[in-house]
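Researcher: Please predict.
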Amino acid sequence: MAKKIVPISRKEAVVEMLRESILAGERPAGSRLNLDEIAEELGVSRMPVREALKQLETEGLVTIYPHRGVEVSELTLDDIEEIFGIRTLLEQKAVARAIPNLTPSDLELMHETLVQMDALSGHGGEWMELNSRFHSTINKRCRWPRLIEMINILRRNVESYLRTYWRVMGYQKPQQQHWALYEACRTKDIAAAEAILAEHFADTFKSLLSALRDAEGSTGSRSRLRSRVEEKA
């Protein structure tokens, strides 16, 4: 029997569109979100927009201020460090549970994804999508949906920053770590996979931290950081 396709609600559609625009940097951190403008832009009433913003607040992507309105959430350096620290622990748990469950098809998809990433080095948006696919292929096999959702929320919290600064941070080292993680998964070496993830996220955080500080021109500053997309030749 064919699987029944359930159409998404207007609220879910608005969530997806707003989430993607935030992650892509089209709605930068700190920018105000006007319900009426969003409703008109998307061709819906205020109600699904209001409900969508409440959900995005639970994901940490927007902040709703009483009597002040809604803004795309900004992260401090401490926030980013905390997110990477928690994500490391969660993804280590996920990979430990996932490795025994990875199928030949999963490994084939992981390999294919990494080959595509090798060819795309330097193309931020596409590379990030493949990066997400690679990690998600592993994480989904942990078979703990709540764990997967927590990881996804943390990933979304920093994704707009990563999309902006990947071109500054570079692709070579993280891609080497991806290949090492693939090999650990292929050989079912859980300890090696956990160690690689710890190194991978620690290096990503350090590189992002350096890029953010350089962009803000405030070394050691704990001021709030805006995620700005700057096109450079």
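Model: The first strand starts at residue 32 and ends at 33.
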